Known about the structure:
Elements: H1 3-15, H2 25-37, H3 75-90, E1 102-107, H4 109-114, H5 118-131, E2 136-142, E3 147-153, H6 159-181, H7 186-192, H8 196-214
Antiparallel strand pairs: 1-3, 2-3
Helix pairs in contact: 3-5, 3-8
Amino acid sequence: MAYQKALNHVIACSDAGLLPTRLDESGMQQALAVLQQNLDVPMPKQPPSSAEPTTAATVTAEPAPAKRPALSKDPRCVALAEALKPVLQASCPEGAGGYGGALEARLHPVDAQALGGLELIRAAMRRAARQLGWQVRTVGYARERLVLVIVQDVREVPAEFADILEADFMSASGEMHQRMAAVGDEAALNALGPGPVQRQTEAFLRAAGAAVKADPEAWR
């Protein structure tokens, strides 16, 4: 399966609420099984959390709430986006013309809140990606012990870069198989070093830390 198709499938299963919330060793095994079982299944959209009443009713008009400023104009968002641009660039496979980039960060809720919260982080990722010319898709959800944020370039890849992206996907798949084979063998896992998501999360946190350090008052 091509890289973009694989990533789209993961995001679709996540949006449909099919993936486990805890991605420890057992959760990864469960996630892989779910992804495989749903390869050819159209993903249903989750229903909205609340529905508007369909019956007519007489109500007292309430004043419209004050419009909140766009997150993309928040100084914290602007600073974080600027710091993240090199991280997003580095996620693009070498020689692929800047296509095929994607970044996944798994944050502790305390760290996410210190950076302005999930939605501000997503807005900063979108801003940074668009400045790099990406066609952007973002995913984000928060759980009790995890805040997950993903940004992906979904532009159609020119034919001249298709082989490079396919080779990068095969390399990532090979690393994943190595890690799955080493589950339960602590020495083997340690020898492999940090995984791709851990590496990307660490790069995200370094960039975010630099943005905060440059203007700490803005984040108070």
